[in-house]
Amino acid sequence: MYIEPNTTIKLYSGIPFDNTYEHTLWFDDIVAQNTYFHGGTHAGRAKYTLANNSYQRVEKGKMRIALCADDIYDCNYLAFQNTNYGNKWFYAFIISVEYINNVTSEIVFEIDSIQTYLFDMTLEECFVEREHSETDEIGDNILPEPIDTSNIICSSYTQTNNMRKYDLIINVSRYKDGTDYVNGGMVNGLMQGMTPRRFPLDGDTPAETQQNIDTILDYLDDLINDNHQDEVISMCMFPQYYTGNYPLFPAEVPVDPVYIPVKFGDYVPKNKKLLTYPYNFLDVDSLNNHALYRYEWFKKKESGGRLYIKFLTEGTTSAQPQIALIPQDYNGDYVGGYNMTEKLVMDDFPQVGWSADSFKIWAATHGGSTAIKTVGGSASLAAGGAGLFAALGAGASATGFLAPLVAVVGGVLALSNVVNEAMVAHTMPAQERGTNSGNIDVATRRKDFYFRFMQVTEQQAKVIDDFFSMFGYACNRVKIPNRSGRLLWNYVKTNGCNIVGSAPADEIRKVAKIYDRGITFWKSPLGIGQYHNADGTLIDNPPV
Q1: pTM for this prediction
Q2: Can you give the pLDDT at residue 8?
Q3: What's the pLDDT at 412?
Q4: Nearest-angstrom CA–CA distance, 471 and 131
């Protein structure tokens, strides 16, 4: 039985993808595909349409057509439909063109398995290594990437500025409050057997600061003169914001909002994953400790179109005072929103040394009760009296302690042991009490929590942004590959792609290997392979 040749062949020039399958076109349905390849006014319209050809075999990979080779050397794609046997279009890449005669050419072709079976195969769940994600907000995609991030810099920093002024905390075993003595109690949430006395240190002016210092020194002198110097347990400097009136619980001082940086130098990335760790994160340094915080783990707040995060500081006064920086709404749900498990603690506040005049302490301790100690050795009153006062100095006579110490026995002054004790006390070096840490950070008033905005360099950010735009993000999940979730293009790479459909088994295996190698689907033929605008800026490809 004779069957009239009725196969249609179309030849295309300038189809923007090839048999490497790095790129191809995405169509939502077969109507859209037919519109591109067969629509009369579309950019993909065939250069030549040949009707009434003989049946074309898919596996043969060759066909002869009635066109001169010189007329079709610019063609890179073809489609054919064996109309007598069905309405399916087969799409193929033109591999070569062979001259047969002046009116006949032979074409070697390879079936385009993606376009030919695009709507005949269904992708099932499989392991997806990479793809363009369906969402792209900060924190949506945080899996590690095979990217070098060794060039991390501190792009800028801010600080609390809550530690510019200091008080002196003198911890005493007891002190007199009116007519009663106070002996410790509950202070800033800690039960203490001593009581902190707060003395303002830093003033608004140098004169006020000096006045505060004089007040402190007068207090210490009064302690010595009253023989209460041993009641001083320790002294330390502590920021004024956290001293207050010593409430039962630690003093809470809020921190100004910390705004999340969304630029690398002057460069604004297109892919939001660049705004997460390890490309963009917060390092808080207290100058004796530091902690790393990831922006994506905060419940972010917004003000004036800018995202920010919050911290709280708490300070407690004790012999070893501390201030804690506590992240708010970070890495989980916590009582009150404060993550106490990932707080940063600041300590190492200077313990202040102080000098107590040894002679004054000896005089205050012994002046009213020292008994006469008679030992061998004598001196005449005339010879020894003047020498004694000369040795002790005017300060000794002013105390009046000599009278009860002197006993005249037969005109002989028996003073040697007592005088020796007084002389040693007067000439002893000052006794150091407490420990001076010599903390240069407090001395320069620079001790604080420093919020350091850590980022990759601007140049590296551009490189990484290009990579993400081309190849999406690491996925590493078992799911159905996402081939059309972005505005302009979608890259997908699988491992062990799982496909079912109405197609030959070898074609299914071939397509599965294509997905395992990685392929990019484009929404428009005019933009295939173009990731940058004419001015060099990266094209935005947001989720749809």
Answers
A1: 0.79
A2: 94
A3: 39
A4: 7
Amino acid at 421: E
- Token pair in block for residue 129: 């290594």
61: phi > 0 → left, psi -120 to 50 → alpha, else beta; which?
Answer: left
Q: Is 35 exposed, middle or buried (0-12, 13-18, 19+ CB in 10 A)?
A: middle
Domain count within the chain: 1
Which residue from 439, 80, 463, 395 is spatially nearest to 288, judged by alpha carbons? 439
The span from the CA of 225 to the CA of 219, in Å, is 10
What are residue 348's phi and psi, to 5 degrees? 65, 40
Q: Which residues does residue 486 pair with via DSSP β-bridges, in sequence order?
A: 543
Q: How far apart are CA 177 and CA 444, in angstroms?
A: 34
d(CA 272, CA 280): 10
Query: For residue 380, what pLDDT is reported?
Result: 36
Q: Is 453 contained in some domain?
A: no
> Which residues in the chain come in under a pLDDT of 70?
1-3, 40-44, 175-189, 191-193, 244-249, 355-438
Specify the pLDDT at position 243: 84
The reported pLDDT for the residue numbered 399 is 40
Could you tell me if residue 366 is inside a domain? yes
Task: Confirm whether 489 is domain-assigned.
Answer: no
Q: In one letter, which amino acid is 458?
A: E
Asked whether residue 402 is domain-assigned, the answer is yes
